[in-house]
Amino acid sequence: MVSVINTVDTSHEDMIHDAQMDYYGTRLATCSSDRSVKIFDVRNGGQILIADLRGHEGPVWQVAWAHPMYGNILASCSYDRKVIIWREENGTWEKSHEHAGHDSSVNSVCWAPHDYGLILACGSSDGAISLLTYTGEGQWEVKKINNAHTIGCNAVSWAPAVVPGSLIDHPSGQKPNYIKRFASGGCDNLIKLWKEEEDGQWKEEQKLEAHSDWVRDVAWAPSIGLPTSTIAGCSQDGRVFIWTCDDASSNTWSPKLLHKFNDVVWHVSWSITANILAVSGGDNKVTLWKESVDGQWVCISDVNKGQGSVSASVTEGQQNEQ
Amino acid sequence: MAARWSSENVVVEFRDSQATAMSVDCLGQHAVLSGRRFLYIVNLDAPFEGHRKISRQSKWDIGAVQWNPHDSFAHYFAASSNQRVDLYKWKDGSGEVGTTLQGHTRVISDLDWAVFEPDLLVTSSVDTYIYIWDIKDTRKPTVALSAVAGASQVKWNKKNANCLATSHDGDVRIWDKRKPSTAVEYLAAHLSKIHGLDWHPDSEHILATSSQDNSVKFWDYRQPRKYLNILPCQVPVWKARYTPFSNGLVTVMVPQLRRENSLLLWNVFDLNTPVHTFVGHDDVVLEFQWRKQKEGSKDYQLVTWSRDQTLRMWRVDSQMQRLCANDILDGVDEFIESISLLPEPEKTLHTEDTDHQHTASHGEEEALKEDPPRNLLEERKSDQLGLPQTLQQEFSLINVQIRNVNVEMDAADRSCTVSVHCSNHRVKMLVKFPAQYPNNAAPSFQFINPTTITSTMKAKLLKKSRRWKSKREGSDSGNRQIKAAGKVIIQDIACLLPVHKSLGELYILNVNDIQETCQKNAASALLVGRKDLVQVWSLATVATDLCLGPKSDPDLETPWARHPFGRQLLESLLAHYCRLRDVQTLAMLCSVFEAQSRPQGLPNPFGPFPNRSSNLVVSHSRYPSFTSSGSCSSMSDPGLNTGGWNIAGREAEHLSSPWGESSPEELRFGSLTYSDPRERERDQHDKNKRLLDPANTQQFDDFKKCYGEILYRWGLREKRAEVLKFVSCPPDPHKGIEFGVYCSHCRSEVRGTQCAICKGFTFQCAICHVAVRGSSNFCLTCGHGGHTSHMMEWFRTQEVCPTGCGCHCLLESTF
């Protein structure tokens, strides 16, 4: 069964809000209310501090690794309204870009699938979602979706690049036409799906309504090439819903209640094959859920996260956010 | 569920043993299997190193067999055969019948050694009597219980030496051996025959019955009219027994189909879904028993015997045990936390009756076990708000109404004894409060007897209490406490994924020998214990057999792919692994059958496949990319080279090969260009003969790409390349320099090596004057060139262009 392979003593001086493994599962990035972001080499059960990144002026909420084809890049977002993109150059980590386009705390950052290039989505308490696209030579183009969620946006998660329902053979010689999509969750209790139009503008495509309180996290499941799209969403109301869309053309999504927890659910996270969902909640527990062959979600483990002030992050070994 | 959910680690086959019963001795050393001609004694520590046999002469099968459960008599076992019971003695590798118990007049249905007295054995029979034998005097039974009805099961109570239960069809009778004339209690338990009966290991009055009526029921025999709980099943239940740890229950179903999995582990407090399915046996599980725990090990081992003639041992690790637990240990943890957290100062005058001692009777406890320490905790946490002033007050606030938690408090002595008792765990702890408590001193914690938890758990608990202690002292001494950040725990969930890294390493994709590939992959699957995949690969071996290979002439015969076991079978396999989200299997199957559909024999009609030992990477696709001398290289990694930034440095050496590497993604370029009707027919036949439906090519590609990505994460880049060779969809448009090619015949612009307008091949080799389809090199200055191998050969000795144009190609650009 699930086994602990490492326990990393981060020596953060305050609550840790997020912990993310990189693409290969060799490095761990953590961020904390102590305003720092730390990167550890955790290969072979070790824990070597590679970098202690200072630059934020408030609690750092979330970190996100970019795909390694772009180099070693980490994005972080903070209460200080800033998004910082950190980059490793010749073995040292440095601030590569700072985005200060939000009027309030930035709560979530998520890199787009690598197929699209370097694109970062950021969700903020000012209700807006901004999209930073790397255009080369250190330049980032910013697009902003204002008023994406009234009162605030708490989470963003990109759809995988594999076009769902791409069963139709593409004409030879043509690249499949990816449509960029992402999901966001906010204080309006909604999950919203966004789609990039042909003119490059982002349009709200869908509202997923099921929660009765703030949506705390959304996670679009990685695709293994099946026509179904899946999104997990969790909320302050203690509920976790699994949304599925079997028919990309009609774009109808149906929710299924995974479980109602007794406490707020902070985060949801998928395994690389999207067969396991990890859920972390205010009860300081991480639970793993698996869909049985007949489509029922069952809890397959109950990992007590240890004691002390436990952050709300979900980190599974071998499992990276994408 | 797939086999990966199982933790079976030993399988021993006893072909033709025809054993009907099995028993594991109390030391966990031996198992006896009772066959018709032999009794097999298996050394469980070395089950593969042969086994001893005791031969027997009887026309009757052995009905029941059981080792004596007392250490001092551990080498005795009893085996019933028709109307008699043989007592065997097993010593020094050989066994013999010591005595025979004869008394029953009909077949003996069950026997059970007494839990408390090593000399007592009870037997039940269809002859309506239940006999209790004292093996010191074997002439006749010492007690005969007259049941009037024939009995199918008999079991001693595990807590009360005088109590035993028997089953008679759907009824259960509870007996006191001192009152043999009549049963103490009758339970009309089930509508059909009871197959299994098991007493709770810790509760005197609780038992579980399993029946033909598709249910397991839990009883407190003091309330014979109403069962405590029921586990409804779809099929008859053969056995249901409590686990030696926590609150588990193992059931064996009588499956309707032989291959259904029938061995399940449950948490008796959550009967909605089983905690675990032991997958492996191919036939009905006849018997299962727990091995004695090894010293120092937290794992339990379940030993099972099935009609498939295999003995299996399954590890049930602490993780799985915990799934059957009722959070007891967590509860204890928090319990201690809550004690130490309670703030309160000096002594008081308050006198109160502190004798809240409560003794839970065994029967009630079962029903009340649900999470008691947690309730206690909650009560206490809320009490913290009230801020009790004294130890006495604090004591008075403790909730003592929890039945398996017993708290004895002595405010005068400033001590408190807490004992927690749940299933077979017992913890007793003495907590002493120093005089300064709680202002400047933390209480001390000490385990006292009887405490049954392991020393590691003790250490963990003590550590926790120390932590609180230091924390408390720290904060009390006036230091402003820094909010401590928790540790980040990294868990390995690889075992939960449908994909296996080790399989990723082991799997091969040899396009030249598909058969061997399938066979080797089957062997690899066996190594990691994926039995389902062994079968899949064996099937793939058969399906890719040359004799099923399609004929080139469409009129000769219907291709194998059209057969129900052809494409249809493969599709249903793929659909199954889609549901399991096993992209590894999906991608591998797609690749193998893709390889198979490409012509065999001559490995590739379009040129040789790359020879791995050679440094020269020869393009192996039908339509290669255009590689020019040193000036640019086409990328083999369509997914990883589209952006403006370079990928990590270590990749560079792979990609900077001067020859470039073209990928088969381009295979499909220009494949729509056939206009000849015969070509079209051939094309149609081409599609029909494929085992993989060409209509789903895109999806198959997605599987391979997704698996490729996973292989990349695992650092298996070569394996990834091997899989991606079978991706057929076009690569991302090349973003580097691209060469415009104009057809040498009609001058129209061409992408690829064949002109879409005139069908001619766009360029010829300057040396052999044959159209170039494979890897090619051209001079950027004069535009002449040809087959890479020819150009290499030419420029090894020459400096000028082979066409005679006079261009010094080698100087202008380097090949």
Automatic annotation (TrEMBL), chain A:
Biological process, per Gene Ontology: mRNA transport; protein transport
Cell location: Lysosome membrane; Nucleus, Nuclear pore complex
GO-annotated cellular components: lysosomal membrane; nuclear pore
GO MF terms, alphabetically ordered: structural molecule activity
Pfam families per UniProt: WD40 (PF00400)
Subunit architecture: At the nuclear pore: component of the Y-shaped Nup107-160 subcomplex of the nuclear pore complex (NPC). The Nup107-160 subcomplex includes NUP160, NUP133, NUP107, NUP98, NUP85, NUP43, NUP37, SEH1 and SEC13. At the COPII coat complex: interacts with SEC31A and SEC31B. Interacts with SEC16A. Interacts with SEC16B. Component of the GATOR2 subcomplex, composed of MIOS, SEC13, SEH1L, WDR24 and WDR59. The GATOR2 complex interacts with CASTOR1 and CASTOR2; the interaction is negatively regulated by arginine.
Species assigned in the record: Homo sapiens
UniProt-recorded name of the protein: Protein SEC13 homolog
